[in-house]
Amino acid sequence: MQLTLWTYEGPTHVGAMRVATAMRDVHYVLHAPQGDTYADLLFTMIERLPRRPPVTYTTFQARDLGKDTAQLFKHAAAEANERFQPAAMLVGASCTGELIQDDPAGLAAALGLSIPVVPLELPSYQKKENWAAAETFYQLVRHLARAGSTGDLPETPTCNILGPTALGFRHRDDVREIESLLRSIGIRVNVIAPLGASVADLRRLGEAHFNVVLYPETGAMAAQWLQRNHKQPFTRTVPIGVRATEAFVREVAQLAGLDADIALRQAQAAHPARSRWYSRSVDSTYLTGKRVFVFGDASHAVAAARVASEEMGFKVVGLGTYSREFAREVRDAAAQHGVEPLITDDYLEVEQQIAALQPELVLGTQMERHIAKRLGIPCTVISAPVHVQDFPARYAPQMGYEGANVLFDTWVHPLMMGLEEHLLLMFRSDFEFNDTAPASHLGHANAQREPEGATSPLVPATRESTPASDLAADPILVTQWSTDAERELGKIPFFVRGKARRNTERYAQERGVPLITIETLYDAKAHFSR
């Protein structure tokens, strides 16, 4: 294990908790030390759930290690069953509890409980959160899905939605949007799992014609098992963006035995995609070609890169993921965009890549939000891990046609705000826009004369036109730029151009260089990159 300040994924027991917390009548008994109860805060403080997760911790302490910790687990499991009366119980150990080797599965079996007990073997030192969430859901489906139910299917095309969990990025709203989309084309949703599902719902999974996998990271393993054992095909398209949503509608129509063209017209009539028109409007076309760096879990990162390139007109300059289990898919997508894939769970490598590529927009996780803020680059979160602001009170899906509208707003608006800041900076010396100018709507105040010492934005300040007091206060103004150097500086993205100018002038002044040339500019860049 690597000691780090931030991690993209939590330990395996957090992944299991995401599934248990998403369901209604499942309880998780976790063999863990007292300190591991911090995981509750992920759900109550970040996701803002009105209840604590359905988890009982054995909370053994250092002094308990010399005693019978196995008996401590058996007591906790029996007490949880009596107190919460769940319909099924998950049992397992955290990364610390795993070291004790008390065998929670065998201990729970020895209790002879009257409810199904699903043991979780989660190798904490080899796997992480997303894999554990997928494994937990798979084990629940494998133990609880009723066999032999596929022979009695309803006449109406019916599907299950698999993959949404607690603490998932916009899962709540995605499910609502996709369920509405399926309903608009005549497909009924049988079960949504694990989010909001009960044990009885899992037993009914076989009563559907096919499965919709919204989040492969957490739902693909269960879908594959259902395909093998219940002959249920499942979808491969993640409906993020207008084009992917259209492909998704055609795919589910085919699986349901419907006419794909008719289904697509029905879906488009019920769910207007304003983003298609907005992305072609005058307000957006001047953003065409903006350089974008994408990082997140595999599904969201691949989808975001596709939407950015095909629907927004951006240029993808970097693509990566921390989901090593889906590295092949990300490598294939990176090849399509002509970029080198970044497969890592080290945020410092991601920061180095962003700094080197100097994109104009970052689409990433909560980690990249912090990185971009330090680098002065606009950023939008597209994937977990996320923070409390990414669980909004409003309806804000990422999937479906409404999700495409949300993507347009959240991706394009930061660039527009950045452009406004750039224009204000460029015209900062203008008599109407300088810091001492009154508000523009106060007409009588605007009749004042131009502030003394202000210069036209089209005429750079020179040593002769700058007051001597300013020169004394800021000796960097003495340094001059050559025409070629100014032109080269203009190629640097506007949100880091000011820093590049300041660093170069500082470098030149410290070395007594009176005229900055292209060579000086690159020497300064090399100096500050060390």
TrEMBL record:
| Residues holding [4Fe-4S] cluster | D36
What range(s) does the Nitrogenase/oxidoreductase component domain occupy? 13-415
Q: Which reaction does it catalyse?
A: chlorophyllide a + oxidized 2[4Fe-4S]-[ferredoxin] + 2 ADP + 2 phosphate = protochlorophyllide a + reduced 2[4Fe-4S]-[ferredoxin] + 2 ATP + 2 H2O
Query: Which molecular function terms from Gene Ontology are attached?
Result: oxidoreductase activity
The Swiss-Prot or TrEMBL record lists the needed cofactor(s) as:
[4Fe-4S] cluster
Task: Check the record and name the Pfam families matching this protein.
Answer: Oxidored_nitro (PF00148), PCP_red (PF08369)
Q: Which residues form the active site?
A: D283 (proton donor)
Answer whether the UniProt record assigns the keyword Metal-binding to this protein: yes
Cofactor binding: number and manner: Binds 1 [4Fe-4S] cluster per heterodimer. The cluster is bound at the heterodimer interface by residues from both subunits.
Enzyme Commission code: 1.3.7.7
Report the sequence similarity comment from the record: Belongs to the ChlB/BchB/BchZ family.
Q: Protein name, please? A: Light-independent protochlorophyllide reductase subunit B
